[in-house]
Amino acid sequence: NSYRTAIDYANKLIKLKTAVSADGYVVKCASYEGLKKRDFALHHYQKGVDLYPQKHELNLNYALALFSAKEYSKAEYYAAQAVLTNKRNDQAHYLLYKIAVVQDNRPKALLSALYYALLLQDEEQCNEAYRLVLKLWWQEPSLEGNKLMRNVHSNIDFDGFGSIETLVNEANSVFVVNMT
Question: What is the pTM of this model?
Answer without folding.
Answer: 0.72
